[in-house]
Structures are given as C-alpha cells and as structure tokens.
C-alpha cells in the first residue's frame, strides 16, 4: 500500500469513526456529564473532548512526527488571533445595538456553549482536522480540501431550519462561512486562533443581541456580518501586501499543489 493510499484511508476511517461515534454517543455523554457535574457547559466540553479522541489518535497515526499542537494549528499567537478578530467584527459590535435589543433570556451556560465551546471545537474538527490536514499535508489544493469539510460543516447546522427555503439559506451561509474561516486560517500562517476568535465574536454578537433564531438571519443581521467579513478580508489582504508576504491561496494551488508548495 502506497503512502498516499495509507494516509487517505486512515484519515477517512478515522473521521468516520469520529462522525458516527459523535452521532451515536455525544448526547449520551453530555447527559451523563450534566447529571454528574450539574453544568451544561462542562457537559458540552466533556462530550466534545471524548468524541475528539478518535481524531487525535488518527492524527498521530498519519503524522507520527508532528506534535498535536502543530497538527491542530494551536501553536500560533492567541493574541494575534484575538486582536484581528476583535477589530474585524467591529461592524457587528457597533451596528447591532442600533437595530436589535439585548437578548432578555440570556443564559451564561448557553452563551458559553454557543460561543466559546462551539467556536473552539468546530474549528478544531472542521478547519484544523478535516480541511487543514488535507491541505497542509497532501497535494490537494484549497478548493479540493475545503469542499467536503464545508459540506459537512453546513450539514451539522441543518437542524436549525423550519422549511425548505430556510434550509437552503442555512446550508449556503454555513458552507460559505466554512470556506471563509478556512481561508482566514490558511492566510494567517495556519494560525487556527484567528479563525476561532472570528467564529467566537460573530457568534457572541449574534447571541447577545436578539438578531435571529438561526444563522439565516435577516437584513441588518446579515448586513453587519457582511461588513465584518469585508473588513476582516481587507485587513488580511492589506497587511500581507504591506509586509510583502505572499498569499497562501493562489490560482496555482486551487485544486492541486505543486510538490514544492506542500507543507
């Protein structure tokens, strides 16, 4: 068996084990932990941590010489990620108070789950593992790497839909959001903290203000989110051009990378 076939076979099997184990046991583990610790937030973190074991083991099997922090891109600057995300999402922070009331039924544990916990673990699973490993350690290009991961990321948000129109909106928004987070992650020297904090702040402002019941949103909710996306994208492009840093994603590596460009 060639190295490539072995790599992709173990990668696919490892993710499938994670996916079906998560599907079958995440809620069971979460409910058990909630009864044990009497905290939804702790239960959510523990359930994610247990289900992630298969991805960690898979990563070490296919990349035995790499540290876990490197594989999952957690060795970058946390502060840099926070600052860029905080500035980049300023349009949402500034615009939402003019159009939406602060959520009256705000629950601290639910807020933690929908912001910190979800942002961290979803970026680990979808951007760092499912998309990042394929792009960084194989010859697959950006679009080739991001497709399946983004489709799965969109799929896990389907439960928010109430009808077919809303379903299509949610799938489209979450798919494009996944592509955006992946691009941000790659262009920031594979610093996952940037994507984590962008994800966190976007979720935070959406949760704090009574914007909408799901990610499909509404006019002003999506307008300020779009302005934030434009600002973040502009900041990254401006900074890289100013410092003469080459872009990671170019036309030459959209589908297949040249061997010399492989991480």
Molecular structure report:
- The protein has 263 residues and is mostly helical.
- It has 2 domains: 1-65; 73-261, no CATH class.
- Helix content is 73%, strand content 0%.
- It has helices spanning 3-37, 40-51, 53-62, 68-71, 78-88, 90-99, 108-137, 142-155, 164-187, 192-208, 219-242.
- Helix 2 (40-51) packs parallel to helix 7 and helix 9 (164-187) packs antiparallel against helix 10.
- It is globular and about 55 Å long.
- The model has no long low-confidence stretch (mean pLDDT 94).
- It comes from Chryseobacterium pennipullorum.
- Keywords: Membrane, Transmembrane, Transmembrane helix.
What is the mean predicted local confidence, pLDDT? 94
Number of domains: 2
Low-confidence runs of at least 5 consecutive residues: none
Please estimate the helix content: over 70%
Shape: globular
Distance between the termini: 23 Å
Structural class by sheet pairing and helices:
mainly alpha
Set down the secondary structure blueprint:
Layout: H1 3-37, H2 40-51, H3 53-62, H4 68-71, H5 78-88, H6 90-99, H7 108-137, H8 142-155, H9 164-187, H10 192-208, H11 219-242
Helix pairs in contact: 1-2, 1-3, 2-7, 5-10, 5-11, 6-11, 7-8, 7-9, 7-10, 8-9, 9-10
Offer a few descriptive terms.
263 residues; mainly alpha; 2 domains; 11 helices; 0% strand; globular
